[in-house]
Structure formats: C-alpha cells, structure tokens
Write a structure and sequence with these properties.
By secondary structure, the chain is mostly helical. About 75% of the residues lie in helices and about 0% in strands. The protein has 8 helices and no strands. The chain has helices at about 10-40, 40-65, 65-75, 85-100, 105-120, 125, 130-135, 140-145. Helix 4 packs antiparallel against helix 5. The longest helix has 30 residues, at about 10-40. The protein is elongated and about 60 Å long.
C-alpha cells in the first residue's frame, strides 16, 4: 500500500489559494465569452477587471505561495511534493542565491552546500537536474552510473 503523508496546513492553504486562482481565471474567461456572445460591455468590463486581479494574484502567488510548483504538480502531484518542505526551500534558496549573487566566493560556498545536499540526498538530481547541473555540472556525472 502506498503511504502518503498528509499535507501540512501551510501546503493546504497554498493549494486552496491556487484553486481559487484557477477559479478566478475561469470566471474571467467565462465573463468575457458571455460578454462577447451577448454583446454586454458590462460583462467584458468585469472580465477585464477580474483578469487584472488574476494577474496581481499570480504575481503574489508565485512570490509567496509557490504557484509555479503547484502548477507543475496540479492535479496529480510532482516529484518536488515528495521532498520535505524545509529541504525543498533550502535547495530552492541555494538556486536563487547562486543566480542572484556575482561574488565568486559566495557562489563557491553555495556550490559546496549544494554538492553536500546532493551527496546526502541523491534524489535531488532526479527532481532538479537542470538547476543542479547549471550550478555544478560535475554533479551530473557523480549521480549517474557509468
């Protein structure tokens, strides 16, 4: 029997906001189509306002609620969902800090942290192969048997 752990309350909130975001887009499209079909500018205006709200919601959701990860995993799940939230956050923070940082010493330290994490958790290579190889191409050969 496949054992899946229950989602944390924060993950449940993120998923609920993501479903609300999707419903917002569906309502936007439906209002726009109804407005065009019936010739009501009122519906079209509402759909444009709702579309603007959706764009703001998307921007905030990608920043704070991990909408990009949820979009990849919706509705059936993604390999990233199997990682513990603290590990996923740590790895993604390393990726972000590495690309935002131009100081070679700090980038080297981030590369070392990532190497240590990949050696401890080789499944990270299956989940983030492009991101890891962009930071340290040697790790690709480390985790793949020859």
């Amino acid at each position: 029997m496949d054992h899946r752990q229950l989602n944390e309350p924060a993950e449940i909130r993120r998923r609920l906001f993501f479903v609300l975001y999707l419903a917002c887009w569906i309502a936007t499209v439906l209002l726009f189509v109804i407005g065009i079909v019936r010739g009501h500018l009122f519906y079209i205006a509402y759909s444009l306002v709702l579309g603007g709200i959706c764009l703001v919601f998307k921007k905030k959701g990608e920043s704070f609620l991990q909408f990009k990860r949820l979009a990849r995993s919706f509705p059936y799940g993604d390999a990233q969902d199997d990682l513990p939230a603290p590990l996923r956050t740590q790895v993604e923070n390393i990726f972000r800090a590495f690309h935002e940082n131009q100081d070679w010493q700090q980038r080297l330290e981030l590369r070392r942290k990532l190497t240590t994490l990949v050696k401890e958790k080789p499944e990270l290579m299956e989940i983030y192969p492009e991101e890891i190889s962009a930071i340290n191409p040697k790790l690709t050969s480390y985790t793949r048997p020859v």
